[in-house]
Amino acid sequence: MHEADVSDAPDDDILRLEGIGKRFPGVVALKDVSMRIGRGKGHI
Fold it and tell me: Which one, 10, 17, 19, 37, has least CB within 10 Å?
């Protein structure tokens, strides 16, 4: 598992995920997935 380091995130990124994975028995659903969300690019 990887940890997020917010000190390295550019000012316009409000969320950055790197190296994410998800496994189920017998299946790798996600492997080494990265995602960035910039300021003003998402609604919660």
Answer: 10
In a domain, residue 12? The reply is yes
pTM of the model: 0.52
For every residue of 1-44, DSSP letters joined together read -----GGGS-TTEEEEEEEEEEEETTEEEEEEEEEEEETTS---
The per-residue b/e assignment along 5-19, b for 16 or more CB within 10 angstroms, e otherwise, is eeeeeeeeeeebeee
Number of domains in the chain: 1
**Amino acid letter for position 29:** A
30 lies in which domain range?
Answer: 6-38
